[in-house]
Amino acid sequence: MPQILSPLPGTFYRSASPDKPPYKADGDAVAVGDVIGLVEVMKSFHEVRSEVAGENVRFVADNEEPVMAGAPLADLD
To answer: Start and end of every Lipoyl-binding domain (predicted)?
Structure first.
């Protein structure tokens, strides 16, 4: 099963700001290069782009959850 992994350690955010919708919702399709969230490191936000394509994305990392580099953020079918 393909996974989208965190490129670096920090805090994972599923949307650009609290009043914006998430980049992707559970069940969405994901293409290579799609932004699925942000990782914040020391007040700097980095886009998380998918390196794999798939259907039915399921997030395993919660919004605002601390993550380590290489940690799974989402699974794809």
So the answer is: 1-77
User: Distance between CA 60 and CA 45 in Å, rounded?
Assistant: 20
| Rounded distance between C-alpha atoms, residue 61 and residue 39, angstroms | 11
3-75 CATH: 2.40.50.100
Residues 17 and 1: their CA atoms lie apart, in Å, by 29
Domain ranges of the chain: 3-75
Q: Which long-range contacts (CB under 8 A, 24 or more apart) does 20-26 make?
A: 22/63, 24/57, 24/74, 25/57, 26/57, 26/58, 26/59
Q: Are 60 and 73 in contact (CB under 8 A)?
A: yes
- List CB contacts of 21: < 8 A, sequence separation 6 or more: 15
pTM as predicted = 0.93
Per the DSSP assignment, residues forming a β-bridge with 47 are 38
